[in-house]
Amino acid sequence: MRTSRVTFNRRATSRRVLLGIVSLAALLLPCPDRSGADEIATTPQSVATSQPTRPNVVLILVDDLGLRDLGVEGSTFYRTPHIDSLAESGMRFTSAYANCRVCSPSRASILLGQFPARHGITQWIGGATGTQFNRNEPLLQPEYGRRLPSDDETLAEALAGAGYRTFFAGKWHLGGEGSRPTDHGFAINFGGHSKGSPPGGYFSPYNNPKLKDGPAGESLTLRLADETANFISPSAPAAAPSPYFAMLAFYTVHGPIQTSQPLWKKYRDAAPAPPADGNRFRIDRTLPVRQIQDNPIYAGMIELLDDAVGRVLDAIDASGQRDNTIVIFTSDNGGVSSGDAYSTSNLPLRGGKGRQWEGGIREPLYIRYPALTHAGMTSDVPVTGADLYPTVLELAGLPLRPQQHADGQSLEKLLAGKPDERLRERPLIWHYPHYDNQGGEPSSLIRLGDYKLIHYHLDAHDELYNLRTDPSEQHDIAADHPSRVNSMRDILLTYLQSVEAQFPTPDPRYDAEQARTRQAQIEGPGKHRLEQAHAEMLEPDYQPNPTWWGSAVD
Predict the structure, then answer these.
(1) 210: CB partners within 8 A, 6+ apart
(2) Least confident interval from 122-131, 252-261, 341-350, 411-420
(3) d(CA 463, CA 447)
(4) What share of the chain is helix, strand, coil (3-state, %, to 5)?
(5) Which of 59 and 543 is assigned the larger pLDDT?
(6) What three-state secondary structure class fits 328?
(7) Cα–chain-centroid distance for residue 263?
(8) CA nearest 252: which of 187, 314, 310, 309?
(9) Which residues are within 8 A (CB) of 460 and not within 5 positions of it... i.e. 6 or more apart?
(10) Which of 43, 240, 308, 408 is least surrounded, with the fewest CB atoms within 10 Å of its CB?
(11) Strand 139-140 and strand 281-284: pairing?
């Protein structure tokens, strides 16, 4: 990743602004006992002196996990029994969304209760803007926030102020010095720093400035789960009779795409037959998009993720606090079906990470709170990550902070099995005035009821889809519903103006002929090489090249 040193102050206000092969034995090495984190906040937190009456909160956030990457959501290739069980033991939201098609903005939205256009982090932190973006595109991307705004109060800070012990493990990617987890309400930080992918890959040594290395070959995914489980344990050194908020933000399944040799072989042998025409990828406007789930390396990553989640759930049960613990499981954007590692398929949803369609933003969201929810609950009400802030506050019996979580709404009624038409009919808004590595186009979106409008910034044209009848977004009905298009566009643009959203501008350097030549290369020899590389992953004698993309970062 390229990291810009430009600091962005969007408005003058007080707002703070791997494919590697390792041995199975190394992968299963136990984590050594550690009594402290690599970073501990210097500001003491309030500690209650009696048994917790407020619920504990465990928030599990996965990176780049697509909705269809789980068995409970329809995958027949990936194996996710622990996550599936979690989904089936509480409320499963079937129309849940990340707040952005890439990572950092969605993570900020969860912690702040705001849409990205409002908090200002509209791109993954480190993405180039303006003339620093050296790809031939017709628009110049605007600047964006490079760290969590310091005057906002994060969910962790709100809970810490109410006596919660707070813990963070995993991917942060919301700023470096001065904007780390311990600067935003987390008392303990294992592994959270400025980078968006694991610097040393998924096996120790990690090369992570906020996480001590484990034994050679130790799994990062399992390590983070074990650190979380240790924190949850009532015998942990930091344990106290006060409730806790533990946020486990896995780096997985973000690239580099790595697994162990036994898991690669397991899923190589279980892979479905390739499409009849031999094409795993089809061009959708800009890039090839994966059409089938048969990547054995990615499948191995998914299995390790599921094992890690299982360890955390077991720790909750072993603590005796299952009935008093809210467990939330979600992801930050869609699965990577185009660009980068081309890891997975999100079908029948269109597109994936970085793209403006449902495959880029629809996510799993499961909430289990035995004091309120019961097994097998589902809701098709559209909800987003920004709703988690007020939801947790309300479930914890704490006052809401509507000026902070300005775009989030509590899901408490839905979790109690009650209707909430206010949520069903509210507008949900996305703003991504950027390009990315996955073929997405600068655009803003609004979902209102069953309808979704995509407003493109290049030429201001709109697409309209009825998601109830056309969840795959194959039929643009904008021409048939001009009044609906106008109304939804007005709501969208009025909101963006009200929060002083930034927009792209024309790039005078753009060369249309060069762009056509590049696109021809992508659709011709580029796609051929891609098909060949992914077919080779399933060959019995496949040996990954350790210097291939994904075996090292930076």
Answers:
(1) 38, 39, 180, 189, 190, 191, 192, 193
(2) 252-261
(3) 12
(4) 30, 15, 55
(5) 59
(6) strand
(7) 24
(8) 309
(9) none
(10) 43
(11) unpaired
Contact, 87 vs 366, CB < 8 A?
A: yes
- Distance (Å, whole) CA 329 – CA 323: 17
- CB-based contacts of 171, cutoff 8 Å, min separation 6: 61, 63, 103, 107, 191, 192, 196, 249, 250, 251, 254
Residue-level pLDDT at 181: 96
Per-position DSSP letters for 443-487, written without gaps between them? EEEEEETTEEEEEETTT--EEEEETTT-TT-----GGG-HHHHHH
Q: Residue 477: what residue type? A: I
Query: CA nearest 368: which of 57, 112, 3?
Result: 57
Phi first, then psi: what are they for 71, rounded to 5°?
-60, -40
Strand locations in 36-182, DSSP E?
Answer: 39-40, 56-62, 91-97, 139-140, 165-170
- Name the fold adopted by 28-131+143-424: Alkaline Phosphatase, subunit A (3.40.720)
Task: Report the Cα–Cα distance between both ends of the chain, in Å, rounded.
Answer: 6
Count the residues in the chain: 554
Arithmetic mean of pLDDT, 102-124 = 98
Backbone angles phi, psi at 357, to 5 degrees: -95, 180
pLDDT at 47: 43
Cα dist. 316→163, 165, 247, 313, 365 in Å?
20, 15, 14, 5, 19
Mean per-residue pLDDT over the chain, rounded: 90
Cβ atoms 151, 16 nearer than 8 A? yes
| All residues at 6 or more sequence positions from 128 whose CB lies less than 8 Å from its CB, including other chains | 2, 4, 134, 141
Judge whether residue 501 has pLDDT over 80. Answer: yes
DSSP letter string, 232-284: HSTTSTT--SS-EEEEEE--TTSSS----HHHHHHHHHHPPPPPTTS-SEEEE
- Determine the pLDDT at residue 541: 82
* Pairing status of strand 165-170 against strand 325-331: unpaired
Tokens of 507: 């790039």
d(Cα 347, Cα 341) in Å, to the nearest integer? 17
For residues 8 and 144, is the Cβ–Cβ distance under 8 A?
Answer: yes
If you compute the radius of gyration of the chain from its CA atoms, what whole number of angstroms results?
22
Q: H or E element: which one contains 326?
A: strand 325-331
What is the biggest distance separating any 2 CA atoms in the chain, rounded to whole angstroms? 70
- Report the 10 Å Cβ neighbour count for 539: 9
Tokens 């021409």, residue located: 479
Q: 277: number of CA atoms within 13 Å, CB side?
A: 6
Q: Using the 8-state DSSP alphabet, how is residue 327 labeled?
A: E
Strands 462-466 and 451-456: antiparallel
**Rounded alpha-carbon distances, angstroms, from residue 50 to 54, 235, 241:** 11, 16, 6
Q: Spell out the residues 6+ positions from residue 48 whose beta carbon is closer than 8 angstroms to its own.
A: 163, 240, 241, 242, 243
- Distance (Å) of CA 38 to CA 34, 155, 181, 208: 10, 22, 12, 10
